[in-house]
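Fill in residues.
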């Protein structure tokens, strides 16, 4: 039992560090997101990605603490990556949807809450952008219908921002400015 005492202590310290790191990173992300006006949906995705990376690092450190043979670990990792590669090649649309979702989420000017129009040759879809997940973009049409579009299809279409928060704020201010000012009667 004495031979594992050091590894158990190191593992316990690592797990305590994991809890502390997750707590502080979530607080830091929340503060930064509020400062940069990042939506709650984006903040959740960022937290998930960072949690995944932290857990991956903890897994690597645990294998080092417990003395897992690096050659065996390398064989396991390459085998896993090979299987995943074959699965992604067989289902290339999954990988393209995830990639397109990340591109749409981080770089596209359309944000959650915007009213957008997706144009095709013969038709167009219009609605409020309610969610961008790893696989789908979700719209709510003006009649309340839920529309789900694969991200890789959306990335290939023309997207027009019909109305966003800035436009709504400008319209609200313009309406207020157009009203005549009523002076109080003396």
């Amino acid at each position: 039992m004495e031979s594992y005492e050091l590894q158990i202590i190191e593992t316990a310290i690592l797990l305590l560090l994991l809890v502390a790191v997750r707590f502080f990173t979530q607080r830091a992300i929340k503060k930064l997101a509020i400062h940069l006006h990042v939506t709650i949906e984006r903040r959740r995705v960022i937290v998930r990605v960072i949690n995944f990376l932290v857990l991956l690092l903890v897994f690597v450190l645990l294998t080092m603490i417990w003395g897992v043979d690096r050659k065996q670990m390398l064989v396991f990792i390459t085998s896993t990556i090979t299987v995943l590669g074959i699965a992604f090649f067989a289902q290339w649309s999954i990988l393209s949807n995830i990639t397109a979702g990340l591109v749409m989420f981080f770089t596209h000017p359309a944000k959650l809450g915007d009213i957008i129009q997706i144009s095709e040759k013969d038709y167009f879809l219009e609605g409020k952008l309610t969610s961008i997940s790893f696989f789908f973009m979700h719209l709510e049409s003006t009649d309340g219908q839920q529309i789900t579009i694969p991200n890789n299809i959306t990335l290939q279409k023309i997207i027009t921002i019909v109305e966003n928060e800035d436009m709504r704020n400008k319209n609200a201010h313009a309406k207020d400015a157009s009203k005549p000012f009523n002076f109080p009667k003396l």
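Residues 110-172 form a domain with the SH3 type barrels. fold (CATH 2.30.30.520).
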